[in-house]
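Entry 14. Ran structure prediction on the chain below.
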Amino acid sequence: MHAAALFYFREVARLGSIRRAAGQLNVAASAINRQILKLEDEFGGPLFDRFPGGMRLTVAGTLLLQHITATIEGYGRVRAAIDDLREARSGHVTIAALDSLLVDFLPRALARFGRDFPAINHTVLAAAPAEIAQMVSDGAVDIGLTFVSPLPGTVHFIAEVPAPIGVVMPVDHPLTARLSVSFDEARSYPVLDQAGPLPRGADIDADFSQFKAQLKPKITSNSIQMIRVCIELGLGIAFFTRLGFLKEIENGEIAWRPLTSPGVNALRIGMITSANREPSPPAVQLAKSLIDDLGRLNSN
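Output, structure tokens:
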């Protein structure tokens, strides 16, 4: 069916008159009538009942109008999506995330995103869990990636995945023989600790908090990269989610085992955005891409 015929048909149905539709569309009434007759010929029957005072849809005409309305609305949605995509082709997006996510997860995610949106630039900031929600709320960043915990009403989670804290260690470490590691087993070995506060979500497990407080780390550093190298050198074990060591775990360079603590195993990482501000088109596209990346982590 010709697009013009569909628009003519819709206007006649709306106004109940070919003459009024012609005036509205600034088209000759004869041209509209020809298109209506062609449609009726194509469908093999009348689409309108004709009366001296105007025209009224038949049952078949009503069905056609429903199809036309859905088609036009669908076209509008597609057009809007394409316009948004065009606007999203360039711009800048700022992300605040847990330090461990900057090591492997985010670089890979941005590399994938950059293949489709090469003109979008990014600023990526490492921040403590308690700071990330505030940075999103204040508008300092567009997207936050942090541990799931209660949030202020100005921000909300739009995606989340399980992210339990476990033991990160050399591949030849004795604890790799275990499917999971207890606190008593872990405290028997030298520990490498990351400087800074525990994630708020870890407070749900008092045993883990007490365990951390009792440790006397062999090395403490605020650099996760240094801790990673120390693990590879066999200087000790550390406690992180898998997300900071995806590449090393996949390549068999570092091992990871979950802790036996139910509270720690309940930890999740999520993506947050502002609940009060409309995100920019580039931020929308990046958020969609990161949701896909988080979903792949969850499936693995």
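Residues 99 and 126 are 5 Å apart (CA to CA). Will compare against last week's run tomorrow.
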